[in-house]
């Protein structure tokens, strides 16, 4: 299958630059996959779409401040602006990072910061090795100090299509975000408020929680001409024994398993074995879901409007139908839905 088959045009004015307030008043496009019925709603009206014993599965990951801009001192004492993104932690002080520009940052290079801030710790790091286009970097300070510095001088790694840098941790985290180390939020989750969750529970909607840490390559456009040639990224996933037991019980009794965003879909589908049973594991996943994939555990999905030629668009196209999905995107554009991270939502039932 060609990557170009998942392309579409989008006017930049359709890209949401800030979250809706209140969160649950964003738009919701409801789609019945069997009848192809569509409804234009507000997100809080999902109360009328969910049934008693429906199961919502959320991702508990929490976004950290994983982006840093600073000036590197060159040999002639000139300063060069450099940007670093934490991707994944390899050991206590060892991180896989994206660094821009990275031409001069070869293994063995030691980089010192010239920070224009109140940072008391001199942050220094050395390049250990290069993996693909990333750098393995060792920082020179203790773990507790590193966490303090992240909070002081690092910022939220917003996607490249978000022009404003004024978003807070609270705006870019979900209401039940718990486990740190994501560089991006499971954005379909952002539409839920605590009040809405309380109302859903009062109506006997079940809530389960899994974990997938999202990293920056989530935003990457696939450049391979053929999907089969694309090597998808790895992300850490985890399902507790209690949650696995609950999910298997829900599935066995025929309940509707509703994944809230694509991260939950990837986790559920990775953890489901050949007997259609969810396992409790802590592992990395590089599952690549695109049209032709047979879903094992997910029966419904709450998602958003994804980037052209992204693995996320390919996943939702596998869940519904590529042509029908792109048709929904054209419908959303014509009806003033907002796209991407602070976007409006879609409920595929």
From TrEMBL:
A Pfam family hit: Queuosine_synth
Source superkingdom: Bacteria
InterPro entries in the record: QueA (IPR003699), QueA_dom1 (IPR042118), QueA_dom2 (IPR042119), QueA_sf (IPR036100)
Key words of the record: Cytoplasm, Queuosine biosynthesis, S-adenosyl-L-methionine, Transferase
Name of the molecule in the record: S-adenosylmethionine:tRNA ribosyltransferase-isomerase
Keyword Transferase attached: yes
The UniProt record lists the keyword S-adenosyl-L-methionine: yes
NCBIfam families: PRK00147.1 (NF001140), queA (TIGR00113)
One GO biological process term: tRNA queuosine(34) biosynthetic process
Record GO terms (molecular function): S-adenosylmethionine:tRNA ribosyltransferase-isomerase activity
């Amino acid at each position: 299958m060609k990557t170009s088959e998942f392309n579409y045009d989008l006017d930049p004015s359709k890209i949401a630059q800030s979250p809706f307030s209140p969160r649950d008043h964003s738009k919701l496009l409801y789609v019945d996959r069997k009848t192809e019925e569509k409804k234009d709603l507000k997100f809080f009206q999902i109360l009328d779409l969910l049934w008693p014993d429906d199961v919502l599965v959320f991702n508990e990951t929490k976004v950290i401040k994983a982006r840093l801009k600073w000036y590197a001192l060159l040999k002639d004492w000139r300063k060069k602006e450099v940007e670093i993104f934490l991707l994944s932690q390899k050991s206590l002080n060892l991180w896989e990072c994206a660094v821009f520009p990275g031409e001069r940052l070869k293994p063995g290079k030691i980089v010192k910061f010239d920070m224009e801030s109140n940072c008391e710790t001199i942050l220094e790091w050395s390049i250990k090795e290069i993996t693909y286009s990333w750098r393995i970097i060792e920082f020179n300070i203790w773990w507790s100090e590193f966490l303090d510095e992240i909070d002081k001088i690092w910022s939220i790694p917003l996607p490249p299509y978000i022009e404003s840098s004024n978003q807070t941790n609270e705006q870019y985290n979900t209401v039940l975000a718990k486990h740190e180390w994501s560089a991006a939020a499971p954005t379909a989750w952002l539409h839920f408020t605590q009040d809405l969750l309380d109302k859903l529970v009062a109506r006997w909607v079940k809530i389960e929680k899994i974990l997938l840490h999202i990293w920056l390559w989530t935003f990457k456009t696939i450049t391979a001409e053929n999907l089969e040639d694309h090597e998808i990224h790895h992300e850490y996933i985890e399902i507790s024994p209690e949650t696995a037991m609950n999910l298997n019980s829900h599935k066995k009794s025929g309940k509707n398993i509703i994944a809230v965003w694509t991260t939950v879909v990837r986790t559920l589908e990775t953890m489901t074995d050949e007997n259609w049973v969810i396992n409790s594991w802590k592992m990395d996943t590089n599952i690549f879901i695109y049209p032709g994939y047979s879903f094992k555990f997910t029966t419904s999905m709450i998602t958003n409007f994804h980037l052209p030629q992204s693995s996320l668009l390919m996943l939702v196209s596998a869940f519904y139908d590529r042509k029908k999905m792109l048709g929904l995107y054209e419908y959303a554009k014509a009806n003033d839905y907002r796209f991407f991270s602070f976007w409006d939502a879609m409920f595929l039932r």
